[in-house]
Amino acid sequence: MRTILFHPLALYPLVAGFAALAVLVSLRPAWPTRDLAAAPAVREGAAFDYGAVALAAAQAGPAHDMFIVRGRDVPSAVRLARRMASVGQNAPGAALTLVPEDADAFAGRAVMAEIRYRPLPITTAEGLSLRWVGDETWVSVPTQPGEGRAQFHLPPPGAAPSGLEIRIDSTKADYAYGLELVWLRLIPEAPPA
Predict the structure, then answer these.
(1) Judgement on whether residues 147 and 90 belong to the same structural domain of the protein
(2) What residue numbers bound the domain in which 25 lies?
(3) Same domain, 90 and 14
(4) Would you state the pLDDT for residue 31?
(5) Do 162 and 103 touch, CB atoms closer than 8 A?
(6) Whether residue 24 sits in one domain with residue 72
(7) What is the C-alpha separation between 137 and 154, in angstroms, rounded?
(8) How much is the average pLDDT of 158-179?
(9) Residue 125 banded pLDDT, cuts 50, 70, 90
(10) Which spans in 6-153 are helix H?
């Protein structure tokens, strides 16, 4: 048996099979993952917190590229970058779908939104914009050069919104600029009396 394994006709295919298996195992993070569905927010008092797992379920628009940063097979942040060709256009952003229970809490109420972000090493974007899905008006704020939080005051949507769009803003067209989004917090204001 031992002499058969060392024969070139048996040894080379066996070594090639082990090499192919090692390559497949090393590609494990690139294996297809399950589709992420809209996740409900974690409620903390009046606040609705959407962590990296919920942000990873967002659908990137045609003007954005989205990369999910994983830590131990769980999303830990989302890198969102604006494509170079879309700079200066009023392009859609990445759409975060809201579950109906969360969406009902925002119907007809102004919302204070806060996004915690980290800069990308070289290509950090200059600003962020938010709007309700289906709304025409973006609410924009500039971002700081380092890690920070961007605060937005969103106008009340007419009915329960289906989602929220996040857009990266950059005036530079030489590269795809972006940010790493860590979490999003939405706090609905008191309903009008």
Answers:
(1) yes
(2) 1-31
(3) no
(4) 47
(5) yes
(6) no
(7) 10
(8) 84
(9) confident
(10) 8-26, 52-56, 100-106
How do residues 8-43 score in pLDDT, each as one tens digit? 777 788 889 889 888 877 766 544 454 556 778 889
Residue 65 lies in a domain: yes
Q: Please return the burial class of 23, using the count of CB atoms within 10 Å of its CB with bins 0-12, 13-18 and 19+.
A: exposed
Query: Distance (Å, rounded) from C-alpha 193 to C-alpha 187?
Result: 18
Amino acid at 127: G
Q: Is the pTM of this model over 0.90?
A: no
Rounded CA-CA distance 64/93 in Å is 7
Domains identified in the chain, total number: 2
- Cβ neighbors of 61 (< 8 A, separation 6 or more) are 91, 92, 93, 94, 95, 165, 167
Nearest to 46 by CA among 140, 142, 117, 110: 110
